[in-house]
Write a structure and sequence with these properties.
This protein is mainly α and 380 residues long. It has 17 helices and 3 strands. Strands 1-3-2 form a 3-stranded mixed sheet, with helices on both faces. A hairpin with a 4-residue loop joins strand 2 and strand 3. It is globular, with a radius of gyration of 24 Å. The relative contact order is 0.12.
C-alpha cells in the first residue's frame, strides 16, 4: 500500500506547479527534435517528408488553396500587432509596478519563452523538419560532384542559348520587356501546372499544389530585397507583386518548391527552375531558363570573367532588356533595410543547418550541372 507523508494540499500545490512550468519545455523539445532529425535524414524522408508532411501540405492546399488572399500574411500582421501590444502592456506594468518590477519582468520573460517554444515547435512539426531530409541530388539520383570549369561553361552556353530561343515571340510592354500572358495574378494561378508535369518525370516532386498568392505588403518586401515568402504555418507560397513580370513565374515556382517540402534555398531554386522548364506555358519556361542562366552566369563570372563576358554578348536584345528591368528593380529598392534583411536571413539559414547561409543560393549551379551530366549520359 502506497502512501504520502505530504498533506493533500501540498500534493495539489505540486501538481499546479507542474502544470504551470511544463510549457517552458516546448522550446527545448523543438530544438531537440531538430537535432535528433539531423542524425537520421533517411528516417525524416520516409516518415516525415513523404508521409506526414505531404498530408499536412495536402490539407493546407485543400483548405486554404481557394482563399484568394494570403492567410499567412494576415496571421503575420496579427502577430506583429499582438507583439506590439504585449510590449506596450509590459512597459505599462513595469511603470506602475514599483516594488514588484522584478516579478513582472520574470513573468514576462517566461511568457515570451513559452510563446517562442510553441511557435517554433509548430514550425518544426508543420514544415521545418524538411531541412533535415536528404539532399535533392540524392533523392533524384543526380551526380552532384564538384564541377569543372569546362562543365560550368557548357551549362552557361546551353542556358544562354535556350533562354534566347524561349524569348522569341513573347509579348512585350512599351519598354520592350517581356510581358506575361495574363499578368502577374494570372501567372500565380498557373504556377502549379509546372509541378504536375515535373512530377511525371521526378516522383520526388509529387504532392498537392495550390496557386501562389500575391503579397499585399509587396512594397515592404521589395525594400527588404525579398521576391517571395513561404508561410510554413499555412503552407502558402506568397509572391512579391512589384517584381518585373519575367521574374514572377520563377518566383512563384520557387515558393511552391518550399510548399513541396524542399526547404533549402539552393534546392528550391533548382526545383523552381525544373517546374518552370516542364510547364506547358512558354512564359514559365522562359522565366525558369532566364533565372537559371543568371545563376549559372554569376557563378562563371566569379571564376572566369573573360568567359562570362564573351557569353554575355550572345544574349538577344529582348533578354538584355528583361535583365535590365530586373537590375533596375533591385536598384530601386536597395538600402539599409535590405542589408538588415539579408543579415537576418543569413542567420536564419545557418540556424537551420545551411552553414553557408545566403551563399548557399549559388549552389543551385551544382544541380544544373548534375542535370546536364544526366542529359549527356542519356544522349549517348
Amino acid at each position: 500500500m502506497e502512501y504520502s507523508t505530504l498533506p493533500e494540499g501540498d500534493t495539489e500545490t505540486k501538481a499546479r506547479a507542474r502544470r504551470r512550468w511544463w510549457p517552458l519545455a516546448l522550446l527545448p523539445v523543438a530544438v531537440g527534435l531538430q537535432l535528433a532529425a539531423s542524425s537520421s535524414p533517411l528516417l525524416v524522408e520516409r516518415l516525415y517528408s513523404e508521409r506526414l508532411y505531404r498530408a499536412v501540405a495536402a490539407t493546407f492546399a485543400a483548405v486554404l488553396g481557394r482563399v484568394p488572399f494570403s492567410v499567412g500574411e494576415a496571421l503575420l500582421g496579427l502577430a506583429i500587432a499582438g507583439a506590439a501590444w504585449w510590449i506596450l502592456s509590459l512597459l505599462g506594468r513595469l511603470a506602475r509596478g514599483r516594488g514588484r518590477r522584478r516579478r513582472v519582468l520574470l513573468s514576462a520573460l517566461a511568457g515570451a519563452w513559452v510563446a517562442s517554444g510553441a511557435v517554433y515547435l509548430a514550425f518544426v512539426a508543420l514544415w521545418g523538419l524538411n531541412y533535415r531530409r536528404p539532399p535533392y541530388a540524392d533523392l533524384a539520383g543526380l551526380d552532384a560532384r564538384p564541377a569543372t570549369l569546362a562543365e560550368l561553361r557548357a551549362v552557361c552556353e546551353r542556358l544562354v542559348a535556350a533562354s534566347n530561343r524561349a524569348r522569341e515571340g513573347m509579348p512585350e510592354d512599351e519598354a520592350g520587356v517581356a510581358r506575361l500572358a495574363d499578368g502577374r495574378p494570372g501567372a500565380l494561378g498557373r504556377a502549379p501546372a509546372g509541378y504536375d508535369e515535373a512530377a511525371r518525370l521526378e516522383p520526388v516532386l509529387e504532392g498537392a499544389s495550390a496557386p501562389a498568392k500575391p503579397v499585399l505588403a509587396s512594397t515592404a518586401l521589395s525594400y527588404l530585397g525579398i521576391s517571395g515568402i513561404f508561410s510554413p504555418f499555412t503552407g502558402e507560397a506568397n509572391v512579391n507583386m512589384t517584381l518585373p513580370e519575367p521574374d514572377v513565374p520563377f518566383a512563384a515556382c520557387h515558393e511552391l518548391a518550399h510548399a513541396h517540402g524542399f526547404a533549402r534555398e539552393d534546392e528550391a531554386n533548382y526545383v523552381g527552375y525544373l517546374a518552370c522548364s516542364r510547364h506547358p506555358d512558354a512564359d514559365f519556361r522562359y522565366s525558369g531558363l532566364l533565372a537559371a542562366s543568371v545563376y549559372a552566369m554569376n557563378a562563371l563570372a566569379r571564376v572566369d570573367r573573360d568567359a562570362h563576358a564573351e557569353l554575355d554578348t550572345r544574349r538577344e536584345p529582348g533578354v538584355r532588356r528583361d535583365l535590365a528591368a530586373l537590375r533596375a528593380w533591385a536598384e530601386r529598392y536597395r538600402g539599409p533595410a535590405e542589408r538588415v534583411s539579408q543579415a537576418v536571413n543569413n542567420a536564419y539559414l545557418k540556424s537551420q543547418g545551411q552553414k553557408e547561409g545566403v551563399r548557399s543560393y549559388g549552389r543551385m549551379v551544382d544541380l544544373l550541372i548534375a542535370e546536364e551530366r544526366t542529359r549527356l549520359t542519356s544522349a549517348r
